[in-house]
Amino acid sequence: MSRQNYVFTSESVSEGHPDKVCDRISDAILDAFLAEEPEARVACETFATTNRVVIGGEVGLSDQAKLTEYMGRVDAITRDCIRDIGYEQDKFHWNSVEITNLLHEQSAHIAQGVNAAENKDEGAGDQGIMFGYATDETEALMPAPILYAHAILRRLAEVRKSGAEPVLGPDAKSQLSVRYIDGKPVEVSSIVLSTQHLDASMNSEDVRRVVEPYIRQVLPDGWLTAATDWHVNPTGKFVIGGPDGDAGLTGRKIIVDTYGGAAPHGGGAFSGKDPTKVDRSAAYAARYLAKNVVAAGLARKCTLQLSYAIGVARPLSIYVDTHGTGVVPDERIEGAVSRAIDLTPRGIRLHLGLNRPIYARTAAYGHFGRAPEADGGFSWERTDLAEVLKAGL
Questions:
Q1: In the beta sheet, which residues pair with residue 56?
Q2: Whole-number mean pLDDT of the chain?
Q3: How many helices (H) and strands (E) does the chain have?
Q4: In the chain, which residues have pLDDT < 50?
Q5: Which of 32, 65, 124, 197 has minimal CB crowding within 10 Å?
């Protein structure tokens, strides 16, 4: 029997965190290529530091002339991302930052494993393991600590960008320690919030007076108590932020992107990768399936693993663990899952509609626990497979 009374902690980082700046640029470049050609191939990595952004990786379009044209748009895409995030610092400004574009064509040896041919189906873009997770402790079927750590930073970004709190800067981090009683989240035992501020005269108490009302807005009633331990800008001033204060790199916040440490993570990051890469698409499919298992009432908690080999279409394994909460044996759920959806890379992409420019919005505040959007964004958060899974047992 798993523990029922404990404290669990998760962290989030804002869209202005150096690593998230890089995730955003990589995913915006991906979106630009997918908008031109849904079957575009992109594996885009970004590095950012003081006054400089370096972009590298592999891209591919069927039309070579279009590929050259879109390679030339990378500079403008990058500046638009930095401007939207809000960086206009002396040493990291959207208009003056130096951008180096080292993107090149996708390897033909990788392409031959992925592309469909007369004698083979489209294969996975790489080997690897991917995990999905869901729990009924929140309406979003996400772990509470990461869900609300994201919500705090998203709210602070909203009031910063609206002009309601212009003193806030783009770079921020949050961390919540949540107390569980009888397996349910009931209160925040401690909160850590560090946010960049543009007024150099502000101290930690000044920053807390600005951010505390918004934190209280997003947390459930009663979760903040007199016993909650607050740490707001515990080091003091935080004026120098973003890539000027610390270097950033695509794919370095994978636990922030997923379940905040409450569930396993596979070997790969998501941002900058087109959906032939199972690091991304199969992780989305695993979340989709785990969420639908819980939404169907088959379990209160579900971890689901998929594994793939490069160039091979079908998953090598499907594993389900309902942590003792399942209403039927886990192996029966595994069977229902395998019958409910085509888990080849192409099957996942078609079922979830992943060949669309829907990825820049995923780069901050989590890839999971978000509401499905009308244009297909966050399609993996739908619960439309719940009845199919129940019928398939």
A1: 45, 102
A2: 94
A3: 11, 13
A4: 117
A5: 65
Sheet holding 184-197, edge to edge: 6-13, 168-181, 184-197, 229-232
- Told to judge if 173 belongs to the known catalytic residues of this protein, a careful annotator would answer yes
Q: Which of 133, 135, 132, 131 is nearest to 300 (CA)?
A: 135
Active site residue 184: no
Catalytic residue flag (residue 20)? yes
CA 50 to chain centre: 25
| Pair 325, 301: CB distance under 8 Å | yes
Q: Under a CB-based contact definition with an 8 Å cutoff, are residues 238 and 194 in contact?
A: yes
- Which pLDDT score, from 0 to 100, does residue 117 have? 47
d(CA 380, CA 46): 25
Structure-derived torsion over alpha carbons of residues 318, 321, 326, 331, reported in degrees to the nearest 10: 40
* Per-residue CA distances from 279 to 67, 125, 212 (Å): 24, 8, 37
**Burial (0-12, 13-18, 19+ Cβ within 10 Å), 308:** buried
| 253 is an active site residue | yes
Question: Quick one: which H or E segment has residue 207?
Answer: helix 204-218
Q: Which of 41, 154, 160, 273 is catalytic?
A: 273
pTM of the model: 0.95
Per-residue pLDDT of 281-314, as tens digits, reads 999 999 999 999 999 999 999 999 999 998 889 9
- Residues 24, 160, 253, 301: which is the catalytic one? 253
Please answer whether residues 205 and 40 qualify as being in contact, where contact means their C-beta atoms are separated by less than 8 angstroms.
no
Output the six-digit token pair for 10. Answer: 């998760």
Burial 364-380, CB ≥16 within 10 A → b, else e: bbbbbbbeeeeeebbbb
In single-letter form, the type of residue at position 352 comes to L
CA 366 to chain centre: 4
Angle between helices 74-85 and 18-36 (to 10 degrees): 130
Other residues' Cβ atoms within 10 Å of the Cβ of residue 92: 27
Helix (H) or strand (E) holding 290: helix 278-295
45, β-bridge pairs? 56
Specify whether 45 is catalytic: yes
Start-to-end CA distance of the chain, whole Å, equals: 25
**Catalytic: 247?**
yes
Residue 306 near residue 282, CB atoms below 8 Å: yes
Residue with tokens 């079927």: 141
Cα separation, 61 vs 71, whole angstroms: 11
Catalytic choice (31, 45, 126, 244):
45
